[in-house]
Design brief:
The chain has a two-stranded parallel sheet. The longest helix is centred in the N-terminal third of the chain and has 24 residues. The chain is globular. Helix 14 packs antiparallel against helix 17. The protein has three domains: 212 residues, no CATH class; 50 residues, no CATH class; 109 residues, no CATH class. 55% of the residues lie in helices and 1% in strands. The protein contains 17 helices and two strands. It is mostly helical.
């Protein structure tokens, strides 16, 4: 949890710097709706981790035991940690490439790309749809070399932090570094949906793998990067955007008449659909990236203020949940309340009429916890009756939620989503 806290602090500090520099240079780096959605994605991802998901299919020690080409216990030093970083990055390159290129695996990575912005905070856009952890399979290079787990953990931390800074459009090309590490310019290309940029630059730390395996693309001065995905989500709802691709795969597998297509659709290149399904159920997608207008649902100023207050409240309650060290059963209940709150907020931002159910479920869960345990977020240690004060404040918040809900859902449905064309 300390590592998560440091990661969040790093992202927040870099985002503040990015906002300041962007304002000074008159470059818009963030939008309110997109940033709140990203924060909610990050909290949903960490809440998933609180309840022990994904389930780990195989551990690194098991791989090392069966694959290592030697039986020596290597000493953990800087050289071994660097070698571990290289090995992890090689496996990470192929994992990243497969996540982009295989239909069922794209479901586990799509959320990171569906922002139409490019800024530091989108590092927090991580998926919640994966139930099984397959990352250890991509630690095979490290396992073959027999690298110690401790070195791998250290290398993993370094890798994670090196993947934060390059999510920005403010830093230009960096000369010779472009040939060594992944830079902001290289990673901007990776997030592009332009024909020139799609499915390029999968490297996470080192840029050598893309050059070696033929997936490198330089950022072109005459082709501005358009960010997002080719089937835009058109929603801020974190649950919907996490599962929409998987749901489409399930629908297509059910609707196609060919048994072969029902079986292979999961493992075909990302975006592949059976021809008979395409004809009967066309899906809109971006044909010309330069006609794309960034998705945004207008909201009155009181609603925008409420959205920021609500995401701040959810974050505070999340920190209180983590800090109290609850047992797994209690943690699961609190995590369920967090998911319900995140659903409610992001559905509300999208003018979804089901938003009220998410917030309602959150209140039901927290009421159950108060009645069954006599406490909320361990607040009773502050002073007698503090837990009831907390519940009172949550009820006031719920009242404001209803007011904003009525304000949002009774306004005409408007969106600045881009004009789309249906592929034939």
């Amino acid at each position: 949890m300390l590592l998560i806290a440091i990661s969040i602090l790093t992202i927040v500090l870099l985002s503040i710097i990015e906002l300041a520099v962007g304002k000074y240079r008159n470059i818009k780096t963030h939008t309110s709706q997109d940033s709140i959605t990203t924060l909610c994605c990050g909290m949903a991802f960490t809440a998933k981790g609180m309840i022990g998901i994904p389930l780990i299919m195989v551990t690194y020690p098991t791989l090392k035991e069966h694959l290592a080409v030697h039986s020596y216990d290597l000493e953990v030093n800087l050289a071994v940690i660097f070698l571990s970083l290289v090995a992890l990055d090689l496996g990470g390159y192929w994992m990243h490439r497969l996540f982009h290129r295989v239909n069922i695996l794209w479901d586990q990575h799509l959320v990171h790309h569906n922002s139409e912005e490019m800024n530091v905070i989108i590092t927090m856009r991580q998926n919640v749809s994966s139930l099984f952890g397959i990352y250890a399979f991509f630690q095979v290079p490290a396992a073959i070399l027999g690298l110690p787990l401790e070195a791998l953990v250290s290398a993993g931390i370094i890798s994670r932090f090196m993947q934060i800074w390059y999510h920005t459009k403010l830093i230009p090309k960096l000369g010779i570094l472009e040939y060594i590490i992944v830079t902001p310019s290289i990673h901007r290309v990776h997030h592009g949906i332009n024909d020139e940029y799609i499915d390029k630059n999968y490297g996470q730390v080192f840029s050598i793998w893309d050059r070696l395996f033929g997936t490198f693309q330089e950022e072109l001065d005459d082709v501005p990067v358009v960010y997002g995905i080719r089937r835009p989500s058109h929603t801020s709802n974190v649950i919907q955007m996490n599962y929409e691709h998987f749901i489409l795969l399930c629908k297509d597998a059910w609707r196609t008449n060919r048994l072969r297509d029902k079986l292979i659709i999961w493992f075909m290149p990302t975006g592949w659909r059976p021809q008979d399904v395409i004809n009967r159920y066309p899906v809109k997608q971006v044909e010309n990236p330069f006609t794309l207008k960034k998705f945004s649902i207008p909201a009155p100023k009181p609603a925008k203020v409420f959205f920021w207050l609500q995401v701040t409240l959810i974050f505070i309650l999340y920190i209180l949940t983590v800090a109290n060290g609850y047992d797994k059963q209690t943690l699961f209940i609190y995590a369920s309340a967090h998911f319900a709150a995140l659903y409610g907020l992001t559905a509300l931002m999208s003018k979804g009429k089901t938003a009220i159910y998410g917030e309602g479920v959150k209140m039901i869960i927290l009421t159950y916890l108060l009645v069954s345990t006599g406490d909320l977020f361990n607040s009773s240690v502050l002073f007698t009756g503090a837990q009831y004060l907390v519940m009172g404040l949550l009820l006031i918040n719920f009242t404001f939620f209803i007011v904003i809900y009525l304000l949002m859902t009774t306004r005409p449905q408007e969106s600045e989503a881009s004009p789309m064309v249906t592929p034939h």
